[in-house]
Each structure stands twice: as C-alpha cells, then as structure tokens.
Amino acid sequence: MRRVLLLNASYEPLTTVGLHRAVCLVIGDKAEVVHDDLGGSVLRSTSLVLVAPSVIRLRRYIRVPHRNRIPLTRSALMRRDNYLCAYCAHKAETIDHVIPRSRGGSHAWENCVASCMRCNHRKADRLVEELGWTLRCVPAVPRGAHWRLIGAVYDGDPQWAAYLPQPTAA
Predict the structure, then answer these.
(1) 18 inside domain
(2) Which pLDDT belongs to residue 143?
(3) pLDDT value, residue 127
(4) Is 136 domain-assigned?
(5) What 8-state DSSP symbol labels residue 156?
(6) Residues 26, 29, 33, 39, Cα dihedral to 10°
(7) 4 beta partners
(8) pLDDT tens per residue, the chain (170 residues)?
(9) Residue 112 exposed, middle or buried by CB count within 10 Å (0-12, 13-18, 19+)
C-alpha cells in the first residue's frame, strides 16, 4: 500500500497515512500537498485530476498528546530494530524474547527484539549467554515524539528525508 508522510501545520512529521486517506484530507481541504509523487502518478475521477501526493501538511495545527509509555506492537518493534535481526543483522521476520517467557521473561520493550527465523529457532528457550551470542544493541523503549516514524527513512519516499529525524548508529 502506498504511504504518504503527514506533517503538522508546523512542518513537524506526525505519521504516515495511506494514499486514500491522504487524498481525502486534501480534497476535504484539511491538508495541502507539499510534494507530489516522484513517479508522477495521477489520480483521476469524473470531476477531478490530482497528482498523487508524497508529503502533505495539515492546514490547522494539531497538538500531539504526550504518552508516558509507548505501546509494544509488532510493527513498532520491527521499526525500532529497522527490520534487522538483533543477533545476525539479517532481515527480521519474528519477535524474540531475550529472556524467554518460559524462564520468567516479560513481554516488554526491554526484553523483546526483532529476529530472523533461523536465529529464533536456534535460540529457542535459551539465554543469549548460554549460546555465547551477543545482541547488536540493547533493547529499549523508543524515545521521542516521532517514534512511529522510526525506519521511515529506509522504507519511505526520498522526499521525506528533509522532514524526518536522521537515524542514529546502533
């Protein structure tokens, strides 16, 4: 599904939305197009022709409420770890608990990492130390107002880069 970067009125990135939602916001005059799609895709209806947007900006400022704890979801965890296995750096497909739940490990940000199937099966219900493995980075709760956009630099449109925080080395 084609994604569009949604900016607040202050050009602060909020999230990504689907193309259908982005077009509805533009047609409803709730947002304006900042950048068109690089591919030049055109959307047509009986009464309207619109170039597909890549970045849109809300016309009114939306105050984003501060959350004390970010909810742990599969997609957020994968974005936090940039879709890479925490053990071997290959493409991640599953979630692994560093301290297995069978050994009292919790289902929390600090205990969950993205993992490839091979490493997840090899690790099974053992501890990282038992295998002699090391984690590429210490699992932690994502921080910052734009935690939903972690990884967007890698899987988004190149025009988004000007609005997104630059990734830090892990």
Answers:
(1) yes
(2) 75
(3) 94
(4) no
(5) S
(6) 30
(7) 17
(8) 688 999 999 998 888 888 999 999 999 999 999 999 888 889 998 998 989 999 999 999 998 777 667 789 898 898 889 889 999 999 999 999 999 999 999 999 999 999 999 999 999 999 999 999 999 989 998 876 666 665 555 566 788 878 876 655 44
(9) buried
Do 46 and 97 sit in the same domain of this protein? no
Asked, for residue 167, whether it belongs to a domain, the answer is no
Question: What pLDDT score does 60 carry?
Answer: 97
* Residues 115 and 154 grouped into a single domain: no
Calpha distance 137→163 (Å, rounded): 26
The verdict on residue 152 lying in a domain is yes
d(CA 129, CA 131): 5
Distance CA(77)–CA(151), nearest Å, equals 10
Q: Where are the alpha helices (DSSP H) in the chain?
A: 19-27, 74-80, 117-123, 128-131, 152-155
Measured between its terminal Cα atoms, the distance across the chain in Å is 29
Total domains present in the chain: 2
d(CA 59, CA 111): 40
10 and 61 assigned to the same domain: yes
**Residue type for position 135:** L
Tell me the CATH number at 83.
1.10.30.50
Give residue 82's domain range. Answer: 74-131
Q: Is the domain of 52 the same as that of 21?
A: yes
